[in-house]
Amino acid sequence: MNVGIVGCGLIGAKRARAAHGHPIVSVFDPDAPKAEALAAETGARAARSIEELLASPGLDAVVVATPHDRLAKIALAALRRGKHVLLEKPGARTLSELRPLAAAAKRNKRIVKVGFNHRFHPAFLKAREIVDARGLGPLLYIRARYGHGGRRGYEREWRANKKISGGGELIDQGIHLIDLSRWFLGEFRRIDGRLATC
């Protein structure tokens, strides 16, 4: 598959490097030097807009590695252009932003997935192997903690801006715990929650 990448920062570059056997044909980032650097590294073309990237000849799939407020809009545009889509987590800020993607994927007979990369971490793969082999007996619950280590100025970055991120640590990193819980225990019939800021 020929792949395009929207968002050429840390995560977009990681996805490009992990695309073994799938040529990166076009990349885009509003920060043109980032796009040019990733294009030079991958042999891709640096597009000047998302529209230009989506019009790339032979493009089959798009990786969307942007802040949360742009994920669903870009993915929807790609699906409408007949491209498969891999979205960075959480996929969107809200369920109402996410639902149209499923409809567009079905209508255009394309695949859209949210990239929960923790499922591929060696420790989680081993845990899943043990669970699947019934080595522990039935799982009754999962208890987990997750968070960013933080850095100076972290509270001023886009992740701390609800309009951009959709809402703090739960949607940014806690979404991995929700995904892993579903992966190990299956779908939940009822969900209760309590959220606190320390």
Describe this structure in words.
The mean pLDDT is 91. It is globular and about 50 Å long. The chain is built from eight helices and six strands; from the N terminus they run βαβαβαβαβαβααα. The protein is of the alpha/beta class and 198 residues long. Helix 4 (68-80) packs parallel to helix 5 (95-107).
In short:
This protein is an alpha/beta fold and 198 residues long.
Q: Roughly what is the average pLDDT, rounded to an integer?
A: 91
Low-pLDDT regions:
none
Strand order of the largest sheet: 3-2-1-4-5-6
Strand content: 5-15%
What's the helical proportion of residues? 40-55%
Number of helices: 8
Order of helices and strands: EHEHEHEHEHEHHH
What is the CA–CA distance across the termini? 45 Å
Query: Mind telling me the C-alpha Rg?
Result: 18 Å
Major beta sheet summary: 6 strands, parallel
* Structure classification: alpha/beta
Number of strands: 6
Shape: globular
Give the oligomer, counting copies of the same chain as homo and different chains as hetero. Answer: single chain
